[in-house]
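Task 17 of the worksheet. Students: predict the tertiary structure of the chain below and write it out as structure tokens. Keep your answer in the requested format; marks are given for formatting as well as content.
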Amino acid sequence: MNTSTITPAVARVQGLALVRVTGADAVDFLHGQFTQKIRGLEGAVRACGYCSPKGRLLAVFRAFPMTDGAVGLLVPASIVEGFVKRLRMYVLRSKVTLELAAASIAVATGEAGAAALAAAGLEAPQTGRTTRAGDAYLLGLTPAAAVEGFAAAGARTLLVSENTLSDKLPVVEETDDRTWRASEMAAGMPVVLAETLERFTPQAANLELAGGVVFDKGCYPGQEVVSRLQHLGETKRRGALALFDAAAPKAGDAVYFEGSETGAVIDAVSLDGRTLVFASVALEAAAAGFALAPESAAGTPAALPYVYRNVLKD
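Model answer:
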């Protein structure tokens, strides 16, 4: 068997940056900026969205509690500088400090990942929970669906350390973060990259289905648009996952249905001539499959770990 097709139990994540937020007003300030609750974060890890006033996503990230009352934000490294700069614009007189912190990050996936953690004396946290082990934070992420050759099914754990990770962990180094990116796609979790800033509403990328939006927390930038879409009913676009025998498209590239443009790529990763693509597409394309070019065949749909629905009405 070609070992490159085997999903590593634990893989390094190079494409995430850690933002450490401190100050007496940090929690209240962050709570008013994002699609997810930051108050009551103790012991939890939550997916969050950051929107423009028009309700378009500027970032998708995780928030978790750190020591000394700090809040950690794990943000795609390619957009983190703009993310921090924008947040700082709104701090005004609040007692809030945002700073980039050095961090070693890895992801453990599936049963093999849980076994690797156990062998290193670490216990995988429950979904949505954060635990500590020495100077490392273990974040229990939402489970992924199985995608053969790309993602192992089941629980996922992010390990975040401001020092080095345990040398007992069999961490695989990857230059393209394919294990992390594929596991996020297989969990139905969208990402916003530099190419897709302000391209998607949260619903068009399935963020509320993936647990990244709540509708009872009060105002945040874009909240009126996001809430109105939810109360009107089903969005016209959804995130869909498919496999192709083709090279990977870039984030933001157009995808097609019956020869016409139907949406855009959220993320894609290739391995051994096959490509896994997560794209925001019209509902009919989500159901029947989308293509990477007007005249090419649709990809093979891959399962997501949730069903399309309106979380307020179903």
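Marker's comment: The mean pLDDT is 95. The longest helix spans residues 80-89.
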